[in-house]
Amino acid sequence: MTGMGERARKAASVLAQAPTEQKNKALQLAADSLRANKSRLLAANTKDIIYGEEKSLTDAMIDRLKLDDARIEAIAASLEEIIKLDDPVGDIMAQWDQPSGLNISRVRVPLGVIGVIYESRPNVTADAGALCLKAGNAVILRGGSESFHSSTLIHECLVEGLEGAGLPADSIQLVPTRDRCAVGMMLKMTGVIDIIVPRGGRSLVERVQNESRVPVFAHLEGICHVYVDADADIEKAKDVALNAKMRRTGICGAMETLLIDRKIADRAAEIIEPIAALGCEIRGDETIAALDASYKLATDEDWDTEYLEPILSVKLVDGVADAIGHISVHSSGHTESIVTENSEAAEKFLKCVDSAIVMHNASTQFADGGEFGMGAEIGIATGRIHARGPVGLEQLTSFKYQVRGTGQTRP
Questions:
Q1: CB count, 10 Å around CB of 54?
Q2: 319-to-312, 345, 348 alpha-carbon distances in Å
Q3: 27-46 pLDDT, tens per residue?
Q4: What pLDDT digit, counting tens, does each position of 355-382 carry?
Q5: Structural domain harbouring 121
Q6: Which residues lie closer than 8 Å to 300 by C-beta, 6 or more apart?
Q7: Among 169, 211, 266, 337, whose Cα sits 20 to 30 Å from the Cα of 183?
Q8: Of 392, 353, 395, residue with least CA distance to 376
Q9: What's the Cα-to-Cα distance from 214 to each of 220, 278, 309, rounded to whole Å?
C-alpha cells in the first residue's frame, strides 16, 4: 500500500499538467477496450455473481453487482460522456485587481491523490477512475470483494487507455487484494492520499468516517422522502412516487418514505396502490395501515430506515411545514422531493429542507451525477465542507491563488 501511494503521488504530479486532449484520449481508448473485452467482462462478472450468491447477498446487492451487455455499454458510454465535459483544471473561478496594482486569480487545481473505497458495483471502478483522471487526480481504488474479478478487468481496460495515451499507468491503481486490512491502511495514509471517498453500505461508510485520518467525502445513508402536497396533480404524484421507489429499489436515491398531506388522505390509496401492486411492502401510520389488509403498521424505526428493497414507509402529515419537520428529524440529508402545483409551497420546501438535493415535481432517482450533466459521479456527499451532492469533476478539484504584480512591495 505504501508503494502504491508513492507511485500515485508521482503520477499525480504528471496528471496535474496533462493536457485535456491526452486525458480524453486515455478515456476513449479505455472505452474502446471495455467494448472489445465484453465477453471477458461477462465471464469475470459471472464469477463475482457466484461468489456473491455464496455469500448470501441480497437481491438488491446482486443487482448492483451484475453486468450485462447493456450495462457494459453504459459504462463505456459514461467514459465518452466524461470526454465531452469541460476540463475544470486551470479554470479561472474569479479574477480581480487590487488598489495595489496586483492582479489576483482563483484557479482550479486537482486535489492530488484520491482513495475510493466501494462495494459491489463494478461500474464504480470505471466512473471513479475516469472522473479522477479527467480532473487531473491520481486514484487508488479499493473495490468490494464481491466485484473483485469484474473490477480487475475494468481496471485493466483503464490502464490500457492510460498507456495508449502516454500517461502513467499508476494514475489509476486498483488494490489487488480482498483483504480488508487494505482499507485500514488507506485510511491512515495521510500525506499520500488527499481525500477518501467511501461508496457502499452503512457499515463501510461508518467505518471510514470513524477511522479515517484522511478527509472524507461521503453519505452514510439515503433515507429519501417524497412529499405529496395538497395541491399536487395526483396523476403526476402517482408517477413520481412509483418511479422514486420502484425504478431501482437498491440505489441510494430510492424513496424510502412517502409523506402525503392529510387534506388529500382520501386520495392516498390511489398514490400507494400502484407501488404495492409491484410487490412493495407498505408500512404506514394508523390511517394508511387501515387502507388495505396487506399493509403493516409502521414502527418508530421505520421512519429512520434505509430499506434498499421493496419496502416503503408512508405517513400522513399536516401540510408542507409538517413534512419539512418530519424530514428534518428523519432524513439522512441525501435527497427529498415535493410534488405540488403550488409554487409557494414548492419554494418553501426547496428553501427550508436542508438536504444535499431538494427537488420539485421530480423523482428522487434523478439524484445522480450523470442526470445532473456531470457525466458520472464518484459518489454523493451529504456533508457541508467542499463538496455536497453528486461529486463530479468540479468537486474533485480545489483551487489556488495566482497573484501577478509589477514589482509591488507592501508598505
A1: 8
A2: 20, 9, 11
A3: 999 999 999 999 999 999 99
A4: 999 999 999 999 998 898 886 788 889 8
A5: 2-217+391-404
A6: none
A7: 169
A8: 392
A9: 17, 43, 32
